[in-house]
Amino acid sequence: MSARVVCFGELLLRLGAPGQQLLLQTPALDVHVGGAEANVGVALSCLGHAVAMVSVVADNPLGAAASGELRRHGVDTRHVRRSAGRMGLYFMTAGAGLRSGEVVYDRAESAFATAQADHYDWPALLQGAQWLHLSGISPALGTQAAQATLAAARTACEQGIKVSFDGNFRPRLWERSGGDARAILRELFACAHIVFADHRDMAVVLGGEFAQADAQARVDAAAAAAFAAFPQLQYMACTQRAAHSASQHSLGAMLLGRDGTRAVAPTRELAGIVDRIGAGDAFAAGVLHGLMEGFDSNATIGFGLAAGCLKHAIPGDFSPVGVADVMAAMEAGAFDVRR
Amino acid sequence: MSARVVCFGELLLRLGAPGQQLLLQTPALDVHVGGAEANVGVALSCLGHAVAMVSVVADNPLGAAASGELRRHGVDTRHVRRSAGRMGLYFMTAGAGLRSGEVVYDRAESAFATAQADHYDWPALLQGAQWLHLSGISPALGTQAAQATLAAARTACEQGIKVSFDGNFRPRLWERSGGDARAILRELFACAHIVFADHRDMAVVLGGEFAQADAQARVDAAAAAAFAAFPQLQYMACTQRAAHSASQHSLGAMLLGRDGTRAVAPTRELAGIVDRIGAGDAFAAGVLHGLMEGFDSNATIGFGLAAGCLKHAIPGDFSPVGVADVMAAMEAGAFDVRR
Amino acid sequence: MSARVVCFGELLLRLGAPGQQLLLQTPALDVHVGGAEANVGVALSCLGHAVAMVSVVADNPLGAAASGELRRHGVDTRHVRRSAGRMGLYFMTAGAGLRSGEVVYDRAESAFATAQADHYDWPALLQGAQWLHLSGISPALGTQAAQATLAAARTACEQGIKVSFDGNFRPRLWERSGGDARAILRELFACAHIVFADHRDMAVVLGGEFAQADAQARVDAAAAAAFAAFPQLQYMACTQRAAHSASQHSLGAMLLGRDGTRAVAPTRELAGIVDRIGAGDAFAAGVLHGLMEGFDSNATIGFGLAAGCLKHAIPGDFSPVGVADVMAAMEAGAFDVRR
Amino acid sequence: MSARVVCFGELLLRLGAPGQQLLLQTPALDVHVGGAEANVGVALSCLGHAVAMVSVVADNPLGAAASGELRRHGVDTRHVRRSAGRMGLYFMTAGAGLRSGEVVYDRAESAFATAQADHYDWPALLQGAQWLHLSGISPALGTQAAQATLAAARTACEQGIKVSFDGNFRPRLWERSGGDARAILRELFACAHIVFADHRDMAVVLGGEFAQADAQARVDAAAAAAFAAFPQLQYMACTQRAAHSASQHSLGAMLLGRDGTRAVAPTRELAGIVDRIGAGDAFAAGVLHGLMEGFDSNATIGFGLAAGCLKHAIPGDFSPVGVADVMAAMEAGAFDVRR
Amino acid sequence: MSARVVCFGELLLRLGAPGQQLLLQTPALDVHVGGAEANVGVALSCLGHAVAMVSVVADNPLGAAASGELRRHGVDTRHVRRSAGRMGLYFMTAGAGLRSGEVVYDRAESAFATAQADHYDWPALLQGAQWLHLSGISPALGTQAAQATLAAARTACEQGIKVSFDGNFRPRLWERSGGDARAILRELFACAHIVFADHRDMAVVLGGEFAQADAQARVDAAAAAAFAAFPQLQYMACTQRAAHSASQHSLGAMLLGRDGTRAVAPTRELAGIVDRIGAGDAFAAGVLHGLMEGFDSNATIGFGLAAGCLKHAIPGDFSPVGVADVMAAMEAGAFDVRR
Amino acid sequence: MSARVVCFGELLLRLGAPGQQLLLQTPALDVHVGGAEANVGVALSCLGHAVAMVSVVADNPLGAAASGELRRHGVDTRHVRRSAGRMGLYFMTAGAGLRSGEVVYDRAESAFATAQADHYDWPALLQGAQWLHLSGISPALGTQAAQATLAAARTACEQGIKVSFDGNFRPRLWERSGGDARAILRELFACAHIVFADHRDMAVVLGGEFAQADAQARVDAAAAAAFAAFPQLQYMACTQRAAHSASQHSLGAMLLGRDGTRAVAPTRELAGIVDRIGAGDAFAAGVLHGLMEGFDSNATIGFGLAAGCLKHAIPGDFSPVGVADVMAAMEAGAFDVRR
């Protein structure tokens, strides 16, 4: 495979209530394809990078639709294997005003979660890649998925491929899988070149607590601890979100480097949110784009935050926008119709 | 009937333009079932109370759909009688920005409005109930409906069932029906344990005017006059609304007690309103829930206002939310997607 | 023809992504009929004026639909000729949040753009009219369209019919057509009773630049130059827009008279924008309504701005609202549902 | 008014379940404008005739939509008056297979039905017309509507305008209105140049029964009786329908002349019916087109039947097709896509 | 519980491609609630019987929607328990022409399938019932579901409640559950008053094969064997279907009695099939209706077949039709629109 | 490129009226991607072959959507170049009953039609391919497109790549382009291994007329003439269609070999047609599949006809079905829902 970036993780189908309805208020569902790592893959593909997905989908029309949708966005799906089993699903009610959005997961026992770890030939799958993107969701889906994630990370380390790891800590998934979250995540963090994580993730991975009164101080302390614990780690990036109502959030972001640099992108107000799902993944893709393109830290975190903010205006899990679209979102006061 | 709460009133079908369109801008209509008293009934049912509806619907698929929709939300419809005649309808254009929403009523000569008052056997219909909810709309629909409403209220009084009465004064309906609004409403207020009404309703019922310069003073004066005039009345509740644009309102509420207490729920800003219809009914249901559950006055009006505010984020006339949903709407800054 | 107002220009079909989707994110398109001059015509018709459209559409179901839609709004289409060729189209993605709306034009070689100028018998077409409305788009579509626009304007001048001209300067169209924008526009401005234009349009027409630091000063200078250059010109009107995000703009307007008067309508905040297309045309129609009804300058520009603002709350290119609707949009704080 | 054909009757809104759903199976309704006489008017307009509608609609957005829809199809609506009151509605469930379609009328007390007969100035309304089209529905809607219909027919007779009358006998409407159906219909038949009616209508109008065993003989006898009773009557036309299932009918037609001619159009099989409503009106329009164009009897009834058959393939009440479309439907075996 | 009929089984959500699309050809799904036993329950409720459902649904909005939909159709859902777990789903592509419809099940590990058998208090659940309806699907879902089904059947037997059992043999489900299909089904057949089954089901239950060349002879032999093996069994009913294309089937039915009677309902042609799912359940409900109402065998099987045929014209899994609707479907040639 | 099959031709967007509506009867359009050669490519890809498309699309969201849709179906789009210009469009009204479907083309001056012939590097584009599929539409689009098609065919000939050529003779396109249809087509036929063509195409290419009374004789004579004129040609395949109504066709097919063999697939009746567009392309793909897989002539034409028939049951231009789906369509009487 000649892709520059390889993403590994589960593809999910989102089944959502249309518009601002409650789930099944009317008997119709809109469908989107998602999955944390696939979202990053699609975003990077649309930003111009060669991306390949490694995954397993159900051997039925749902699985075919999921991989077809990746392909439509330019992602190489030759290594999205079709296998007996079910697709992971989630049901979504979008929020509005004082009513929060709500996700009902139905992803247990999926073809991906139950796929045998030794089916993945990582040296072959990663050949030629420069980046491997993983998240903390895959290892929380069960023993096999955890083993596969670890194997991917280890292979990447060995081959000098940079690992991007998004913490995405989900206590409920870990409870069900019964895996040792801390041990597994520690190893994954140890392989990473960049982690998308904040003080809460670090508290899980490193133990203890980052209880500083000041938000900035908490993140700084967590970053310091992370760089101390994981010698290979070069960057930690995170967003800071406040949800004033379901449709109005504010979002800031920062990127901390092993060299002590701290680039902060100023908080933006997001009113009239269309779809908040996948915003973290779009942010991660934006930051990765900056790193891959050699942006400096300020430009990198600025681009990442703009990509994440822009995603709130796009329906679905994916962020199918180009570099020019992200750049346009960074210009204040220039949001009239373009014609 | 073993329901704790009995609601009496007309079921309506709302035929509305989809999305933010003007009415019949495209040739399609979305349908919702509503009616002031039914809205209260559905909301109370979803808050966990046993509710029965007493009404009359058209003996055709429209009437069947209306009562089926109540049943779907857990309301007992055994006493929703089907009868020859038509369903009351209303056509709705949702507002947006500087364009106000607009309702076109088409409810004259409905099966409910023309049903004979003596068809209702109130002692049987109210047996076992603890609350009866009525509104000022039913008696404005015509002589028979007014007689039926009065008979319901009198029976409740005699049997020690608490009457909840929502003023809902509609001058146009009264003009058409030709009934003596003041006399009829006075008797209904006299039976009530709680009224949802403000100084304008009180001016109609008691005559005179509450012309204090200060909004709070007007409501206080109206409440004082109400408690003086109606010895059985224990509570008066009302909201205060300002509509900055069709999609941005602010809403506060207060609950005044015979004992002179005045609980005020602070005003909330509602941006991105989805559907404002039925918000007053959701508020009433929230207040009734507080009273039924023994909340103190502050908790009661707080819960009521949150229920009313939350309704603005829900399409349709009904407020199909649980206690936890209302509680969640009361927490500031916690409106990110729940997953 | 007995219409009071004659509009001349191209009818377009807008093919737009439903809701807040990206173009072709799902395989469906919503269709609206538009065109700058037709938008003005429909708005004036709905404000109560007798309006006739002069245009050419494709001799196929698309052309039939376009003229049918004008007729539906009361515009006389007897002089909308059907001819071989294609309809002008544009594809539209509505903006949201930090994502600007975007128009992709597909209007080249349309039946209108390629129609022979000498097919229009202007003395007959304008007989009985009091106003002729034109815009700067038609002459930019090609030689024949430019000749037709000039002929219309000249005939109107000769017959004492007031010409309303909306600058609508589009450099890309002029580049493609290769016409002499300045010369043609100069002649059209010279015929006009009122122009909808600001300092940028005037810089194009008159040459030079209006580079005053202050926005008001720039417009004043442009108006002064315009009245000096075009003795027949009585009014110049323009809006001032700021686009804070795709869904939140602010809009002000002013009307400047040859007599030196300057009526300014205060800026309004527009949140939750539904559809910004056609707002300038609705503004123009509102100003023309004021002039036709004999409003004073302040009332005229106030009505025009309200009409323009109200359009942002209406899907589609047209502004199908009545005088009462515009008046209602001018009242602050009265935007609750009307029932 | 310079229309060649004037139609008088009520405009209705059809509110129908989408696709093949049961009414309100999902909470959405598709809307069509109809009304027996308006259907004829629209069909004739699309066949190239100048048509004007005389009617009364509600003074609200529903009435505006109804008349706008006529205008869109080229019908002159200057004499569609807007008046206080409600629009006549009907709710529609399309049939399928062994489930018959079903109409629920909700048209009582409409603005049209309650309009005063003396508001119509028939000599002015009919000035310049060559044909007046009426049906048996209007006089069944109530005393005022019956008086208006009679006045229209009488005026037409006096002015030498040919009256086309579609029997459309609806016992239920007559029962409710309490009018003397036979007397009123007799007078209307007496004014008619052509009636669309069969032996059942004739039995109502003339009394007695046409009980011949043979279908053809029944129609012949009815025609003979009609021509004997009504000296002014020149033609009687009718269809013969068999409904094998809701989606498969067969339809034939015949035209009988005062001179004893009987033109029969052979029965056609209609499978996969899209919308059967308005087929009788499309047939009537087709026959009138033949008469107006001077077709012979065979060509007339052939064109009429083809128009009626073609309507079964078109959604909605209207038959918006041109002459070429009807001609195409007459060619056997040539139904592949045209491109 | 005072219901006459109790149904026990799983509620499913059908997620189907809209119209005639392939699954996920466009990203939308229509939702219907179904389940073999619930389908029978809804049909009987709509035919006028008091029906209660015993089931378990997921404790989330999907489960709430499923039970709400039953309630909407008048089924008592007090004993539809909400429990942790997932809803059973199935994905549906409707067939057309030479493309067969296709179901993809996703029902493993549902809240119903994993519910503990001893949670059902059958004596209480069946109190007052006259009929219990079960099917062969529930026992195939797993050990607990099989135990619950057997317990229900045994309790009914003991209490003299008639058991209706629909074979619905699904080899794939049995394979996965690993249960002893023959032993379990034998016991259920032994409890039954009526079974909906044909020679294939009987071959499974009794072993051996019914290999007569003649279709009728096979069914006769199977019935004879069934009555011999199961002394309590009074009736065996089955349909005979031929699928000429996905949209054109023919369907016949017969009812065989222990007394040797054999009532045969003649085969009907079904063209333009709307939705074939649930037709067997509608047939079973029709037959049960006949038995409950005391129809003779011919009337019973005729009503049953008509109900089954009619279902093909109704979208969704349910058959929400009344007695009059079924009767109407039995009249040949009377399928024009009713108005 | 390692694709086995290369297709060259224009991608089109189909904008169609939803369901059975007339074009723009409601203001919405469904969108499909098509194009004769792309249809063949998608079908072959779904049948399991490696396919690459060579084309040019507009450098805007429409072009991106078109190539994304090919990619979704597994077609390699690396050589679908994006270029300034417009997308070819066509507007579609589906037929029903006696109303034929209708296509309105709007494809003139598209990016594909105006692309320079010398931009295609055929030796590189065809490297490794075994088949090249072309049609008679591309050379009819203009000089450049004709040159490009000829260059492709010549290169294939030189490299021993088999050329499949679908006649698709469109007189209207040739008239507009002004090219020498006969000369160009002759050269393309001369390069072909198989042509999809009948006696009408052959009459165009070879001159003269095949006027035998018998249909079979006409095709035989045309084939004989073709094999005589084009020594490289091995096969001629064609369908025979009769359109009884817009929704009911019958379709047969035959394959004639240079060796004099004639394989005939028996005619099938197609009722309830969903979408007839692309059926010829699905047929061609089915025949090519047979040839590539080494089927004998009877199996090849049988598979091809089944693929063509099956397409009538699938919405859109593409035939996204697998081998098993085509095989299933060949089994008579087995069209019940598969579950």
The main sheet of chain A orders its strands as: 5-4-1-8-9-10-11-12-13
What is the average per-residue confidence, as pLDDT of chain A, rounded to a whole number? 96
Distance linking N and C termini of chain A? 40 Å
What is the percent of helical residues of chain A? 25-40%
CATH homology-level superfamily of chain A: Ribokinase
- Quaternary assembly: homohexamer
Q: Which stretches of chain A are low in confidence, meaning pLDDT under 50 for 5 or more residues running? A: none
Biggest β-sheet description of chain A: 9 strands, mixed
Instruction: Give the CATH level 1 class of chain A.
Output: Alpha Beta
Radius of gyration of chain A: 19 Å
SSE string of chain A, helix = H, strand = E?
A: EEEHEHEEEHEHEHHEHHEEEHHH
Most extensive interface between two protein chains, with residue counts:
A-B, 29 and 27 residues
Structural class of chain A: alpha/beta
Overall geometry of chain A: globular
Beta-strand content bin of chain A: 25-35%
- CATH architecture classification of chain A: 3-Layer(aba) Sandwich
At a glance:
Six copies of one chain form a homohexamer. With 339 residues, chain A is of the alpha/beta class.
Could you characterize what this model shows?
The structure is a homohexamer of 339-residue chains. Helix content of chain A is 36%, strand content 26%. The N and C termini of chain A lie far apart (40 Å). Chain A is built from 11 helices and 13 strands. In chain A, the strands form 2 sheets. A 9-stranded mixed sheet of chain A has the order 5-4-1-8-9-10-11-12-13, sandwiched between helices. The first copy, chain A, has a 4-stranded mixed sheet with strand order 3-2-6-7. With 339 residues, chain A is of the alpha/beta class. The first copy, chain A, has a single domain, classed as Ribokinase (UDP-N-acetylmuramoyl-L-alanine:D-glutamate ligase, 3-Layer(aba) Sandwich), CATH 3.40.1190. In chain A, helix 4 (143-159) packs parallel to helix 6 (181-191). Chains in contact: A-B, A-C, A-D, A-E, A-F, B-C, B-D, B-E, B-F, C-D, C-E, C-F, D-E, D-F, E-F. Chains A and B meet through strand 7 and strand 11 of A and strand 13, helix 10 and helix 11 of B.
